[in-house]
Design brief:
The structure holds three protein chains of three kinds.
Chain A (H helix, E strand, L loop, with lengths): L14 H5 L15 E7 L5 E7 L1 H4 L4 E5 L36 E2 L5 E7 L2 H9 L2 E6 L6 H4 L15 E7 L4 H9 L3 E9 L11 E7 L4 E6 L4 H13 L6 E4 L15 H13 L3 E4 L2 H5 L8 E9 L5 E13 L26 E10 L13 H19 L3 H8 L6 E2 L5 E2 L4 H11 L5 H10 L3 E10 L7 H6 L8 E7 L5 E5 L8 H13 L6 E4 L17 H27 L7 E4 L2 E4 L5 E3 H9 L14 E6 L8 E10 L6 E11 L6 H20 L30 E4 L19 H20 L13 H10 L1
Parallel strand pairs in A: 1-12, 10-11, 14-15, 20-21, 27-28
Antiparallel strand pairs in A: 1-5, 2-4, 2-6, 3-5, 7-15, 8-13, 9-10, 9-12, 13-14, 16-17, 18-26, 19-20, 19-25, 22-23, 23-24, 26-27
Helix pairs in contact in A: 9-18, 14-15, 15-16, 17-18
Chain B lengths: L4 E3 L4 H8 L4 E4 L5 H6 L7 E4 L9 E4 L2 E5 L4 H7 L5 H7 L5 H4 L4 H7 L6 H8 L2 E4 L3 E3 H4 L14 E7 L3 E8 L6 E10 L2 E7 L7 E2 L1 H9 L24 H18 L1
Parallel strand pairs in B: 1-3, 2-3
Antiparallel strand pairs in B: 4-5, 5-8, 6-7, 6-8, 9-10, 10-11, 11-12
Chain C lengths: L1 E7 L2 E7 L5 H8 L18 E4 L2 E4 L12 E3 L13 H8 L9 H14 L5 H7 L11 H10 L11
Helix pairs in contact in C: 2-5
The chains are: A alpha+beta, B alpha+beta, C alpha+beta.
Chain lengths: 787, 261, 161
């Protein structure tokens, strides 16, 4: 297929370098003269540092310097980017998060000291020679135990382990209680949203560089948002003004949320490069990643759904304990609140909703956003409780959903968001066709003959993407704006460079963004190049997460390109001696309406830079424009998913035999890339449902600290997926009409898998209404033994 | 890793001599040892690679037995024993992943005796004989509990001789993360009786399920064990399965192995 | 330090290594061949797969000294001699078999080894063969599809564009 504009499945141009081993990942970068750091991390979850003696270690071969907390006096803590206000109007409890542990350790993996040496092995050797004596204190791991009176405190200076007790919408609390008391039927479900480790295949890496001559700092880091790291680290931790700090994120090997956050290792390498006078590099091992990358999910929830006799939803009440880990990671407080509570209406009309979230400190690795971030937790509990309600009331689960679908838009939910567009019946209709739901009974019979239990799970999901309107999130506690930026530079001979604040770590921006620009001008996308990931040559942007790149970053590109076209039309009008109002641009040609006059795109761009015949008195030469786009609302991708499973009754092993996803992402720029995004999300959602679980023992040791015990989905665990995005209700408030597609698969799939397994077991006569994820063979088998 | 020297002897005698040095350790395919070294859980001063020893390679048939060199990789066994001992070849072809199978060796696996490894089940169920540089050891004497064997320091497994059963099959139920055996059962039917060896399940490592052997020796059918049960006592309990679950799987997999044999 | 020599992507190379130097470290740091990646330390992810004497191995679980005299092929040696993408690499691009690209070198090396052994593998055989290669981006769909396509199979009936 030749390259096309919006709607074309252009092959990815970035693939060539990745397929030939020519990618440029952070660990591939080596700076002349670099030293290496090894962090001495706590192997105790909670304790007082009684002795920390580095004197012997300092004499080890190759050691340049050993740092401890004492070296960071006067240096700020790692900041949290979002302040949540609790249900009583008070700010959350926010402990200091030091770069290196100060006096106390609070999770296994916390950094205590850092050895900078000539080689990684020498640094590690010396770290082992550090004399460390920690007095172990009782660890708090279980969230409900952690908030009991008298529980050991993770942070002595705080009142308790409760970060905040959030109620939403607090004014609805009593009305919800009343509606539930008086309802015809109430379905209650208690469940766990299992703790996960993001595990992008590329572990984190940081390289700090300091130029003594200029006083400039550079940080190479595996980040999803280099500008945010520059702001947080420069302004809040190290006190380096942005113009003296450059942050570069070259090719990044996946993020899934875990590379949004500013981590202490980044601050350390930047700081140490100046202190040591050498570039300082840190390469994380996978084992280290398991105890230092922010983890995801970890909610314990009770949800109640009240229904009338016909199955209309009357009210929803939830109570959730959300694990923050030992410190507040960058966006941690926002995940169980504004990214979760606001989605509790789902795709349904429910007049009254009350969400209570207790965020809790524990002696575990910090928890923050992971693909979907709050929205999977919302979808999971809602779609599970609806499925349970349908079974309890004897209503077909699809019919119960349809009976409650929101059908008129815009729709203001009782949880403060306004859905602009959607057609939930359309995606459900599409799904039922794709999944051949009508033929299920026949397949069930065929499975029975082979001794397998077959089940079908269907659910919907909705998410809020395109994060986010800055003034709104400012009111909600965000300490940053969430616009996106783009500079479009047109070169004299007509080629373009798009400098974007978004960051691609697998999403294919280098291919998709040119399609947008090329479509607007009517040129081949190969004339457009994308630059991203370097604060030195891109405008201040907020990066990539929350399925925002195209909806927000793409919109900024549209706005900048519109400015380019407006100016180019002025130049064209001058060249053709016509009125600007009559100039049209199509297929890279400027024409004058009603005449046969035309000038080519390249003639205009050349005139802009060689302004010999040019309206210099009215117009500056050159053709380069910047736009900052701040969205008016979130976008609301939604869809319907179906999973079919076969369960081995003898072993409890679940096989996914079919998975279908019907999504409404609004308009689509590159269908091939969108399919790939959904596939990847499904892989992770199925992983959460069947395999993945970060498990701590009562002493705070991570039992699943490597791929030997943390089960990652493999090729043989998943089927070919059927995905469709032909149902399109374009977003009404961004110029592309796009909604975002990166997280949908991970949000919609876990409830489908669990619904399917519960369905299979119930059809086989087991009295099983819920199994907590992951639905490992042993858990499914145990559930079958009990009911 | 801590640093060490690597020696690459060409003969068993040279290897034995090299292993006599202080803190020396044999290196087979390294697929378990190298990750262990990376985690700094071992600190040998010298690794003696057995990969260059020609007399420890290959798979051959000898007096009705299949003899596998201690240095034969899993991939070689999967390929070269496919006709002579298909159940053993299938087991070897299911260890780890293709890249691991291209390096990992039978000698390395047996010397390590991981309680979740596959090979010990085949060796024990087949009544194989392990030949070292100094002696021959019967399978029933070789495995002495988790990560423990009859091998002395510096002793090298040079080959393993498998009597070929009339019928055999290995059923592996994978631990979801590591893909080692959560439980694996190898059933081998010989003219003089049936042997059933179980890996992955017991805290004592690989073991023979004697009740099943007796029942199957009388009647080699899955039905023959339907009345038996396995006690969860002494079974491994961890994140991936309770002792009860593992005990249950032993029976399920034994039945499946008999049906498939 | 010990001197090690081998042939990498057709060129004879040598260097001084320690006993503990892994093959992947020699390739990345010694030879600057950074296409081979390290994604774990327990031999599971497969980002480091290379071919040693024609066989796929995890270069993070083999010492450089063990490759003395061997013929090693890395991702940098997989394109056609004129630098264009090989049929397998091209199939990965055509079918969007990669996203972040980090697992991709290992995937290509494993897939190439599979196709050498089994020129027309079934879907199930491909999924089984990729046991030791983790990908976090693609959900494996397009990787499996690309390998099927590279082996000349018609993949048009597999769902999605």
């Amino acid at each position: 297929m030749p390259d096309g504009g919006i709607g074309a499945s252009n092959k990815r141009r970035e693939d060539v370098r990745f397929l030939t081993g020519k990618g440029n990942y952070t660990d591939d970068i080596n700076i002349h003269g670099q030293a290496h750091v090894h962090f001495l991390r706590s192997d105790i979850a909670h304790g007082k540092i009684k002795r920390l003696d580095t004197s012997d270690a300092e004499k080890m071969p190759g050691v340049l310097r050993i740092f401890t907390a004492a070296d960071f006096e006067g240096v700020g803590g790692i900041p949290c980017g979002w302040q949540v206000t609790d249900r009583h109007g008070n700010p959350m409890q926010e402990p200091k998060h030091p770069v290196l542990a100060e006096g106390k350790v609070r999770y296994v993996g916390e950094m205590i000291a850092a050895v900078v040496a000539e080689t990684p092995a020498q640094a590690r050797d010396a770290a082992e020679a550090i004399v460390l004596d920690i007095e172990e204190l009782p660890a708090v791991i279980d969230m409900k135990e952690a908030v009991k009176d008298g529980a050991p405190k993770v942070h002595d200076e705080l009142e308790s382990n409760l970060c905040y007790d959030w109620g939403f919408v607090e004014e609805n609390r009593e009305a919800v209680d009343e509606a539930i008391r008086g309802a015809h039927h109430v379905t209650t479900l208690e469940l766990v949203n299992n703790r996960l480790v993001a595990n992008p295949m590329e572990p984190r890496v940081a390289i700090g560089i300091y130029d003594q001559a200029s006083g400039d700092h550079t940080l190479y880091t595996t980040s999803q948002n280099p500008h945010v790291i520059r702001l947080l680290m420069g302004a809040f931790v190290l006190g380096i003004p942005e113009h003296k700090l450059r942050v570069v994120s070259p090719d990044v090997g996946g993020g899934f949320g875990s590379k949004i956050f500013h981590y202490a290792e980044e601050a350390f390498c930047t700081f140490a490069a100046k202190a040591v006078g050498r570039p300082v590099k840190w390469t994380c091992s996978r084992s280290e990643a398991f105890i230092s990358d922010a983890q995801g999910r970890d909610h314990v929830t009770k949800i109640e759904l009240a229904l009338d006799e016909e199955g209309h939803f009357l009210a929803i009440r939830t109570e959730t304990y959300a694990n923050m880990g030992a410190y507040l990671s960058t966006f941690a407080p926002s995940v169980p609140t504004w990214l979760h509570g606001t989605l509790m209406a789902g795709n349904y009309r429910t007049p009254l909703i009350y969400v209570n979230v207790k965020a809790v400190f524990t002696n575990t690795v910090p928890v923050d956003a992971y693909r979907g971030a709050g929205r999977p937790e919302a979808s999971f509990q809602l779609e599970r409780v609806i499925d349970k309600a349908a079974r309890e009331m004897g209503i077909d689960p699809v019919e119960l959903r349809r009976r409650n679908f929101i059908t008129e838009f815009p729709y203001a939910t009782p949880v403060a968001v306004e859905y602009d567009t959607g057609d939930y019946n359309a995606t459900m209709d599409k799904l039922l066709e794709m999944a051949d739901v009508a033929g299920f009974e026949k397949r069930l019979e065929e499975s029975r003959k082979r001794g397998k239990l077959r089940g079908l799970g269907i659910n919907c999901y909705i998410e809020a993407c395109g994060i986010a309107p800055s003034n709104l999130v400012g009111q909600l506690g965000a300490r940053a704006g969430l616009y996106e930026s783009a500079t479009v530079r047109v070169n004299a001979t007509g080629g373009l460079v798009v400098m974007t604040g978004s960051h691609s770590h697998g999403q294919g921006h280098e291919t998709a963004f040119p399609q947008v620009v090329a479509d607007m001008i009517g040129i081949d996308p190969s004339m457009v190049e994308v630059v991203h990931g370097d604060t030195a040559n891109t405008p201040m942007g907020m990066g990539t997460y929350g399925s925002r790149s195209l909806a927000v970053g793409g919109s900024a590109i549209v706005r900048a390109t519109e400015k380019i076209i407006a100016k180019a039309k002025k130049i064209a009008a001058h060249l053709m001696e016509a009125s600007e109002a009559d100039i049209e641009l199509k297929d890279g040609q400027f024409t004058v309406a009603g005449t046969d006059k035309s000038v080519a795109w390249g003639d205009v761009t050349l005139a802009a830079y060689v302004p010999h015949n040019y309206p210099l008195e009215d117009l500056e030469p050159g053709l380069e424009e910047t736009a900052f786009y701040d969205p008016a609302n979130f976008t609301y991708p939604a869809g319907a998913y179906a999973c079919e499973v076969e369960v081995d009754p003898d072993t409890g092993k679940v096989e996914i035999v079919s998975f279908c996803a019907a999504d409404d992402f609004g308009n689509i720029v590159n269908p091939m890339i969108v399919d790939g995004q959904v596939h990847g999300g499904l892989g992770q959602g199925i992983g959460q449902a069947l395999l993945e679980h970060a498990v701590y023992d009562e002493n705070g040791q991570l039992l699943t600290g490597s791929f030997m015990d943390y089960a990652m989905p493999r090729a043989s665990d998943v089927p070919f997926y059927k995905v469709d995005h032909s149902c399109q209700t374009p977003c009404t408030h961004n110029p592309l009409g796009v909604k975002g597609c990166g997280e949908a698969g991970a949000i919609g799939s876990p409830p489908a898998v669990v619904n399917a397994v519960v369905d299979a077991l119930q059809r086989a006569g087991h009295d099983v209404t819920h199994i907590d994820m992951p639905l490992s063979p042993s858990r499914v088998w145990a559930a079958m033994q009990q009911g | 890793m801590y640093n060490f020297e690597i020696e690459r002897p060409g003969t068993i005698e040279e290897a034995v001599a090299a292993l006599a040095a202080e803190e020396a350790q044999a290196l087979g395919g390294g697929q378990t040892l190298i990750p262990t070294l990376k985690a700094r859980l071992a600190a040998p001063a010298k690794l003696v690679s057995l990969a260059g020893i020609a007399e420890m390679k290959g798979v051959r048939s000898e007096d009705g037995a299949v003899v596998i060199g201690g240095g034969a990789t899993h991939a070689e066994v999967a390929r070269e024993a496919a006709e002579t001992y298909p159940a053993l070849a299938a087991l070897a072809g299911g260890i780890g992943d293709p890249a691991v199978r291209n390096r990992g060796t039978i000698g390395g696996s047996l010397a390590n005796n991981d309680p979740s490894a596959c090979y010990p089940a085949a060796v024990l169920a087949s009544g194989a004989t392990i030949t070292t540089n100094t002696r021959q050891i019967a399978a029933d004497d070789f495995f002495q509990g988790m990560f423990t064997t009859a091998l002395n320091d510096g002793e090298i497994i040079t080959s393993v001789s498998f009597p070929v059963p009339q019928a055999a099959n290995y059923q592996k139920f994978e631990q979801p993360a590591s893909r080692f055996a959560l439980v694996g059962v190898f059933v081998a039917k010989f003219a003089d009786g049936v042997r059933v060896a179980v890996t992955g399940a017991s805290e004592d490592g690989v073991f023979r399920w004697s009740e099943a052997e007796a029942a199957l020796s009388a009647d080699f059918s899955a039905d023959a064990i339907s009345g038996l049960s396995v006690s969860p006592e002494g079974m491994i309990g961890d994140l991936h399965g309770t002792p009860e679950y593992r005990a249950h799987l032993v029976k399920v997999l034994t039945g499946r192995a008999v049906s498939a044999a | 330090m010990t001197k090690v020599s081998m042939t990498v992507n057709g060129k004879t190379v040598s260097g001084d290594v320690e006993g503990r130097t892994l093959l992947v470290e020699f390739l990345r740091e010694g030879l600057g061949l950074t296409g081979t990646h390290v994604g774990c330390d327990t031999s599971q992810c497969g980002a480091c797969v290379v071919h040693v004497d024609g066989k796929a191995v995890k270069s993070c679980t083999m010492f450089a000294l063990e490759a003395e005299g061997a013929h090693v092929t890395t991702i940098e040696g997989m394109a056609n001699p004129d630098g264009s993408l090989s049929a397998l690499q091209q199939a990965f691009q055509d079918h969007h078999g990669l996203q972040c690209g980090f697992c991709t070198p290992g995937m290509i090396m494993s897939a190439a080894a599979l196709l050498a052994e089994n020129p027309r593998p079934s879907e199930a055989e491909i999924r089984e063969y990729l046991e030791g290669n983790l990908c976090r981006c693609t959900g494996y769909h397009n990787i499996v599809k690309a390998i099927m396509a590279a082996s000349g199979q018609d993949v048009s009936s597999i769902a999605a564009e």
